[in-house]
Amino acid sequence: MSYKIPLFDLNFDENEERAVVDVIRSKWISTGPKTAEFEVKFANMLGAGYAVALANCTVALHLALKLVGVESGDEVICPSLTFVATVNAIRYMEATPVFADVTSMSDLTISPQDIEAKITAKTKAIIVMHYGGFACDMDQIMAIAKKYNLKVVEDACHGPLSEYKGRKLGTIGDVGCFSFFSNKNISTGEGGMLITNSSEYYAKAKLLRSHGMTSMSFERAKGHSTEYDVIELGYNYRMDDIHAAIGIVQLDKIEEDLAKRAIHRKNYINKLSDISSIVIPFKDYTAFSSNYIMTIVLKDSESDKRNKVREALAEKGIQTSIHYPPAHRFSIYEKNFTELPLTDYVADNLITLPMYSKMTEESIDYIVASIKQVLCA
Ligand SMILES: *Cc1c(COP(=O)(O)O)cnc(C)c1O
Question: What mean pLDDT do residues 45-61 have?
């Protein structure tokens, strides 16, 4: 089905095309100078010490947990209202995900109170996810981590350039992870980035990204080294220069893209705020946000009603989504199931509305008018 207003649209033009062609013509298409340039540009943009470009964010999360020392049998506290990769990464380490609830209907980030309540002698780390590009309560979370000697990994996939008290998301915990999957704020097709201020984590991430080898083929091709040793059991988690070249172009556009999204969000909020039967999460949020997604939550509702609203909007040509089916209700997390009343309610009654820089004010008018019609019907 093709929608009049899609959920998302790529912010691509001939600049991305040219960047790809240039890399192909250079004949160095795997990890190389473009990847290194993308890393430096990304780290500088966020004020992070180091950045390591990777194949995607799922592997960034895996490496992050490895860097902070999560081991088999450890517990890692995480949200359930996230993309399942956040949680799967914990399982890659043979550790146990312990789900914590969201803060409230209007703050869909992980609850610091629930994090503290879920800490046991086995807890090793916390993964937070900055839902929609809106920051978790990092002061409280870092204080809890300090008190119990836990590591903090930030899944900042939704939040490039988002801020918390003047600091960029992803730079506050021990390691930050980003995704450049096609529908993210920065798109390269597949792609991810790990950032950290620790030189030790940085060195280890670079090793693990490429088989645990002490030098990369690009360095050897340049004649910088001819031999290598393998000193860790690593992976092939590399990004290549074709994706990195797209990423570099995307970084040139990100500020303008986010500025447009901020205007769209403001328009949405102004136009939606007289609907008494919905909650607009993060409505009064004032810090800079990447506005990855625009969500509403139906009040006094249940999933059937929400699904009917989504169907009615689809009939009007408006594509919507649900961020997210909660991880604790998936079959593979049956053994880790726990009651999360707020997450359950939100997951059953949330609707993700279209959000992308190229959308128009007219389309927002149409979406809001359609929601009013559907909810009053
Ligand atoms: C997209 C996303 C991921 C996974 O990223 P990939 O690059 O697709 O592996 C993980 N966590 C969150 C919150 C995401 O939105």
Answer: 98
